[in-house]
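Q: What would this chain look like folded?
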Amino acid sequence: MARLFDLLRPVRVTDRVHASAWAPIVTPNQTSTLPMVVYSEFFAGEIAEVTRFGALQIPAFKRARDLLTATIAGTSLKQYREGEDVTPDWLTNSASGVSPYHRMLAIVDDLLFYDWSLLAVQRDGSGQIIDALRVPFEQWAVDDLTGKITVQDRPASAEEVILIPGNGSGGVLQTGAQTIKGYRAMERAWVGRVQNPIPLVELHQTTDDPLTDGTVDDEDDEIARLTSDWAAARMSPTGAVGYTPHNVELRVHGDVKHELFVEGRNASVLDIARLFGIPGSLLDGSMATATLTYSTTEGKRSEFDMYTTPLYLDPIEARLSLDDVAPAGEVIRFDRSARASVAAPALREPLND
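A: My prediction, written as structure tokens:
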């Protein structure tokens, strides 16, 4: 029987094509295979379920996801024994056709949305890992009673897979279901307002004798002629002066602004930032007291590195440092030195001219 790793492997070493981290059969990007995480009895249509695909259609959601996955995947993993670097090849390379960067990108994506991720591993004769491949989320399951893992309906042994738990939040699709549905409903509302604007000027007929609308004779459309002539006259150099016949009244509805729900959408952006644990300013969300708070780009980065990335870095480090991955006495850690905050220059008194 073929090993699980070989079954999941998207390409062979001799192939000249490179596989996606979401390979080999289906990807989380395909709506037909997305797990229906949260259902609603009160909504229908496009927001009847909360899915990864639907959530990523929200700009702030996508930006939060991109910031976290790219930042963490771009941070290399190293293995240490008593402070000495003993990083094995599988952490920096892969014969699967999926680079370690894209493998980690997919792992973080799983943890963000579902709070769980699964790796299929290949081991040598001594039991040490020599390669790893992330298993697409919809291809594996855990039996609630026995705790056994199946991949593509095939039982997987403990030597074949590594189950990586997240920070215990349940994933943003579950915890942020109402926020996602609310944003999508608000988005549909403001798009509808833009597509169906309130008319600023109405030519209102005041008499009972109806104007023709062209239904009987295409060339006899008094309504179309009246409105087009009025619009053309308004755009002329003398458009400030107009004339209406005795049976037409000009009604001006004023400067009607489109209701784009700016405040509500901004509040939703801040809620999305809270779901991911990201500073709202990184998603371009503004707090009510923003004008009273001074912040720098370096300060935002420090806050992101100090409070946000550990929510996802620490669970991965903890799981990969267990003895079934790293030998006893060794640990796997992200190399965070490249993201160490640079100390800001000390403030000094201004010099007089």
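The CA atoms of residues 96 and 248 lie 75 Å apart.
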